[in-house]
Amino acid sequence: MYPILLQLGFLEIYSVSVAIVAAWLAFSFLFWRSIRVHGIHEDAIFDLTFYATLVAFISARAGFIFLHWELFAGKSVLLMPALWVAPGLYWLGGLVGGLPTMVYICRQRKIRLGHILDALPWSLGLPIIIGKLGSLLDGAELG
């Protein structure tokens, strides 16, 4: 287990943080590459990726808080968004939040939903693997 990849004085870079960023970059690139061939404008692709990521991150945290309520019960409400104090995200919660956001933006921008839903399986496989590897390095997964 390597929960801390790099330590420079007081700065610590965690393996799960690097994995989350790498997984997001991989998803963004693969998703962009999958749907640009359908003639979808770059601004719409950016909006889909940005807003879905933002809502997915919030809902992933909310899912973690819901599943691990014992960590937050009786404590300050400020602990809930503080990932640096009580780390944890629930990836299925992120999917539950990000997918309806994409559907909403598709309807708003008049983008064919089939193109987006076809691109998601190709775009999510590698990021899930990267996230699981980061979780394994962190010690949260059994392997």
Question: What can you tell me about this protein's structure?
Answer:
The protein has one domain (4-138). 64% of the residues lie in helices and 6% in strands. It has helices spanning 15-35, 42-67, 91-109, 113-138; strands spanning 4-8, 11-14. Strands 1-2 form a two-stranded antiparallel sheet. Strand 1 and strand 2 form a beta hairpin. Helix 1 runs antiparallel to helix 2, helix 1 runs antiparallel to helix 4 and helix 2 runs antiparallel to helix 3 (91-109). The mean pLDDT is 92.
Q: Please summarize the sheet with the most strands.
A: 2 strands, antiparallel
Percent helix, as a range, is: 55-70%
Number of helices: 4
What is the topology, as strand order, of the major beta sheet?
1-2
Outline the low-pLDDT stretches: none
- The figure for the number of domains is 1
* Strands, total number: 2
Strand content: 5-15%
* Distance, first to last CA: 10 Å
Protein structure class: mainly alpha
- Rg of Cα set: 17 Å
The secondary-structure element order is EEHHHH
Mean pLDDT: 92
Shape: globular
What are its keywords?
mainly alpha; 4 helices; 6% strand; 143 residues; globular; two-stranded antiparallel sheet
Question: Topology of this protein?
Answer:
Blueprint: E1 4-8, E2 11-14, H1 15-35, H2 42-67, H3 91-109, H4 113-138
Antiparallel strand pairs: 1-2
Give a nutshell description of this structure:
With 143 residues, the chain is mainly alpha-helical. It has 4 helices and 2 strands. The N and C termini lie close together (10 Å).
